[in-house]
């Protein structure tokens, strides 16, 4: 880990104290972000989020058919994986990113792997006792400039919004046997059920006595303790994860949770609005039979 | 150029799904191909400057049919009257998904420059490509794409600096599509309305496929259901998988079209399952792959005659048919046979059928042209009668016509079809020959220009050059006394022989086979055509060649006194005709004589002839006899089949006399050495290509095949042992009735009919003990000796060449056992068809010969049917 000089550390801590951060933001200000969905044509759903001038996350969602688990034969699964590109930061070279990959993968899987994520897992089952869909969420960190977990959550929510699962038709073979057929038309593919309830993560970094959101890399180095809170659109808490070595007093903790709920809700609202706007634009173009062109990596803040 | 992408979802074999994205580049350099257009840069415009104009569309126009027009009215599109048509890529791609045969037929029309069908790549054209809109079904999108292209053509042609007004007309039988087109100011018409205007080809109206849904709905409303619904493909697939149903090919009895058999696995045993009656056949047609369900034992067929009466009752309304109910074997000793019904058709084998209109079904006065339903009877008696609607019933009576089946709804006793074309009047030799070629699927069109380009450029002047002798490892046999022995009038001489004494007292015997593979290289269009044809087909009055005649009758043919390339099989034999050594080599020969069987026989018999050639033939003859003796001892069968020869009148080619073919010693001479060569070659190629050698086997016939014959013979106290070919051969030798010299021959003829067909196969696909050739009683066999008229031999030549020439490079075609298997399947099919066509041709000439003629001859009854019998006449 790169080290921070005491002077720098003090500068940042003092700044947080007086609600003025190195880049001019207040404690609870988010950096501007760019988001675009549907940029990986081969995936069932995808999104790219670029936060500020640095953190860049690409999420691809792929769905596959597999046998159901014997002990849960009427539900599908969500499997998450996060990987940091070695080119994103010097620290990620070689095996440098292994721990971070694990940590981020775990954090995402804990929130999205269970019913708290809001996805209707039963709808992912194709034939009870036989096959189900497995939703693979693969996040790639292309560039690193702090607050990567929140960015991943946001990109994941956007990618899942963009995801369409091929439609299946179940055929009764008689004798209680069923077989299904996958319709080849992408138009027939359907959105995941419960997509609107997917939470996003809000990470609060405790620096000195104050806490901030959307920390930059330097601020992350000053962080004594951090708390990532997964919140859904109804301000329900879907997961909490504590990070870094320092402690948080109960009073501060509940304050932090309240902050996270408030900010999370407003973020979700804005995110949903933007996603819907984008979709509407795409639909309008499609209605007129126009070609849809994606900005992809030309999109900048 | 701009890039678009389209995507679809595909399920992999493993069961997973993948999203497939195809990139799609749009171009601005796809020409309209109209001869009138000046703005496009095409050089060879396909669409004429003066297309047809009709009553309804008075501007000359090109036609743009939609997908369903091709799907349903392909026969009309193939009609010569339909020209200047634009085939859109959208339409072609839809066809490819819907029906491969139709797609191929459309491609064939497009390839025919005279038809002036232009394949327009509208999906790649910048101005005619459209994105699929949201909530638009793929069908709607394609219909829209067609309309957009038609519109583009209309505007494009109108805007060009034109010499004459010209436009486009869309053909569609979809009313909705036509409405939309009209509102976009696109000229359009239904097929029926359009062809009604083509007064110069009135038959086109008959060829329009009837709107089936209307009549079907009517019949359904009347509650007239004749057949059970077929099960869905999925139900069938599952039923076959879990053993509830069996799958097999429907084979309808030639004597009774209401009885069929399917070879299927029932009760764990591969056996023939009977399907009796129209209801149980449930609209399946000869050759269809069907799913069958075995009926309960109580309904199993016990005797044939009971089954048919039952069915006659049902079919009383179809008078024309019940009288056609041919006889059944009166054979009560048969045990119960497994009987089944058809629950679904897995693959339809519908094809156009040749036949005639049943005169009885024609109503109305002579010359009336009002449309009426008539019954069409196919030449192939296994095909049910077909109901067609025609305005030319009276003109078509007495004609041979082609009809295609459109549909067979559950409400109709008979399949519904439409008229395709007239071949000519029935009884006419040319017409009937065409009928039998079509019926046996024999490709008989002329060789295309592209194929003829593969022939050597020197043409008839091609000669053997020094380079052939020196550079190609050929042995020079030009000095040897090689001669050929063939039937009179034979022009495609495949084989020639020689023999000479060696210093050590042994003999060198050579069989020389035309070196066809020197001219026909793998991958050439000529090679592909030959592989498709599979064999030369011999009819009574003509020959349908497998290879262009320049090769077959000239450059490859081992004619006398010209130098020819050959593939030789050289044995060293001792005086007992035992092989000491065998060698294969490419060679150059110069045959000294082309004998007929008779000439060769005369030379053997004539003691005055003492020249080297004659002595050689005598040596060969004595060797052949020894070989034959040894073969018979091993159990080879001497079977007989009645082969007739017609003496044709020179000008009219009418048969003036008929005689059975006569066999001479010399026939056997050639045959013996050919067998020997084939066996030697088979051993050699199998040792080098254990997985992909093309071999020929003759399976041991199952005991049940002899049942009938055995019972018949038991009347004469003659027993038939069939467990090995040796025993069969011995018991055939014993089957003699002194008072009837013809009896033994007849038994042999009937034994032939109990045999299974010999087949080509790839050595990798069968177990080695199954390689046996039952009839010849040898463990391994192939065909090597007639490459001019059989493709199998061409392939064997290539295999053998690869065996003897270590430096030769060869491709997958010799080593891939699956490809070899596919080839064998085709060759077996073509062979069977060629045999049947030849037989039908003989039948045709027999009928022509006996037309208006009464001849008295002795005959033997060989089979009794319920209302007829089969007689074998000896002459």
TrEMBL record, chain A:
Xref: Gene3D superfamilies: GHMP Kinase, N-terminal domain
Keyword Plastid: no
UniProt feature coiled coil, ranges: 261-295
One Pfam family cited in the UniProt record for this chain: RNase_PH
Residue span(s) of domain Exoribonuclease phosphorolytic: 30-166, 197-262
Annotated InterPro entries: ExoRNase_PH_dom1, ExoRNase_PH_dom2, ExoRNase_PH_dom2_sf, Exosome_comp_Rrp42_subfam, PNPase/RNase_PH_dom_sf, Ribosomal_Su5_D2-typ_SF
Molecular function GO terms recorded: mRNA 3'-UTR AU-rich region binding
Family the UniProt entry places it in: Belongs to the RNase PH family.
Protein name according to UniProt: Ribosomal RNA-processing protein 42
Organism name: Umbelopsis ramanniana AG
Automatic annotation (TrEMBL), chain B:
Pfam families per record: OB_Dis3 (PF17849), PIN_4 (PF13638), RNB (PF00773), Rrp44_CSD1 (PF17216)
Segments forming domain RNB: 474-806
GO MF term set: 3'-5'-RNA exonuclease activity; endonuclease activity; RNA binding
SUPFAM superfamilies for this protein: Nucleic acid-binding proteins (SSF50249), PIN domain-like (SSF88723)
PROSITE patterns: RIBONUCLEASE_II
Cofactor(s) named in the record: Mg(2+)
Compartment annotation: Cytoplasm; Nucleus, Nucleolus
Start and end residues of each PIN domain: 61-179
Domain of life: Eukaryota
The keyword Transmembrane helix appears for this protein: no
Keywords (A to Z) from UniProt: Cytoplasm, Endonuclease, Exonuclease, Exosome, Hydrolase, Nuclease, Nucleus, RNA-binding, rRNA processing
SMART domains assigned to the protein according to its UniProt record, in alphabetical order: PINc, RNB
GO biological process, one term: rRNA processing
Gene Ontology CC: one annotated term: nuclear exosome (RNase complex)
Family: Belongs to the RNR ribonuclease family.
PANTHER family given in the database record: EXOSOME COMPLEX EXONUCLEASE RRP44, RIBONUCLEASE
Name recorded for this polypeptide: Ribosomal RNA-processing protein 44
Organism: Umbelopsis ramanniana AG
